[in-house]
Amino acid sequence: MNNNLLTLQKFEPEDENLLAEVTEGLQKLQKQLPCKLFYDERGSALFDQICELEEYYLTRTEMTIMNKYIDEISACLSKKCLLIELGSGSSKKIRLLLDHLEEPAGYVPVDISAEHLMKSVTTLAKDYPQLKIVPVCADYTQPLDLPYLNLPWSHKVIYYPGSSIGNFTPKEATTFLKLIARIADKTGGLLIGVDLKKERSVLEAAYNDKNGITAEFNLNILRRLNHELDADFDLAQWRHYAFYNSSEGRIEMHLTSLRNQYVHINNNEIFFKKGERILTEYSYKYTLEDFEQLVSDVFKVKHVWTDDDGKFSVQYLSVR
């Protein structure tokens, strides 16, 4: 174990809570599953593949912005910041930040998948031997007291890339932003990726890639329920479906039942009609003005960086 990689801190939800959440969601009129279920080890690996796809402009465009404006971005974060990443994902993004930050006090990656988290931070710890790393396995959408273990930070910066904020409804996002602001505290900030509204064709292509990786990623949620909750979903009887809901301003991902069927989860039996859909994820898209309004109760937008085509934005917000 690297001296700079501290022990994994685990705050994993109990299976009983997961079972209750899943069964409750599947008993609603619009059946749904929490998108956090995507990210077991296999799902996290599939998402890494999605980020490299031609159609999935989000990661590529965010990296273009980061590369172009990294000096300005690192100046905003300033000296001795404690960097807390929610959803430890692309090592390319975090490495770019770490290479340009001045004397970072430490790095606290928070991810719901322990295997994926430890795989990424073990390599990172070897490459950045002077950086203190505190990996935390947790559902970061819930209130959480993070362990900083006496790291010598002057302020905290939450890093939330990839436009994952879009996975919340605006109401949920407001609640979540309040949680983030409490973690960051009055002297802290938030560096966040925000996907912007654009043509339907571009949006829908990003979630319906020709190689079927996104479809496999979506179906993996059922595979996980079979494995972890003793469910009996027949994956061959479900199909990935994603579209842009213009009235809501969001991409929606669903799984469509290909026949009338019963599914058992633990001791629960659930009926699905042919053509019935399970909502697995939505991804809200914003204008810059809409997003500024969304965060205005708890954050002030200090800097905005976008690509030349205005597809995506990276923003630095300070706590009000």
Account of the protein in words:
With 320 residues, this protein is of the alpha/beta class. The chain has 2 domains: 28-51 and 201-284, no CATH class; 57-140 and 151-198 and 286-319, Vaccinia Virus protein VP39 (Rossmann fold, 3-Layer(aba) Sandwich). Helices cover 35% and strands 25% of the residues. The strands form 3 sheets. An 8-stranded mixed beta sheet has the order 1-4-3-2-5-6-13-12, with helices on both faces. Helix 2 packs antiparallel against helix 8 and helix 3 packs parallel to helix 4 (91-100). The longest helix is centred in the first third of the chain and has 21 residues, at 57-77. The radius of gyration is 20 Å and the shape is globular. It starts with 8 loop residues before the first strand and ends with a strand. The mean pLDDT is 93.
Which parts are unreliable, with pLDDT below 50 for 5 consecutive residues or more?
none
C-alpha Rg, in Å? 20 Å
The CATH architecture category of the largest domain equals 3-Layer(aba) Sandwich
Structural class, from secondary structure content? Answer: alpha/beta
**Fraction of residues in helix:** 25-40%
Q: Could you say how many structural domains there are in total? A: 2
Provide the CATH topology of the largest domain.
Rossmann fold
Write out the CATH superfamily name of the largest domain.
Vaccinia Virus protein VP39
Envelope shape? globular
- From the N-terminal CA to the C-terminal CA, the straight-line distance is 39 Å
Report the β-strand fraction as a percent range. 25-35%
Tell me, what is the CATH class of the largest domain? Alpha Beta
Main pleated-sheet profile:
8 strands, mixed
**How many extended strands?**
13
Discrete helix count: 9
Element pattern in H and E: EHHHEHEHEEHEHHEEEEEHEE
Sheet with the most strands: spatial strand order: 1-4-3-2-5-6-13-12
State mean pLDDT (0 to 100 scale): 93
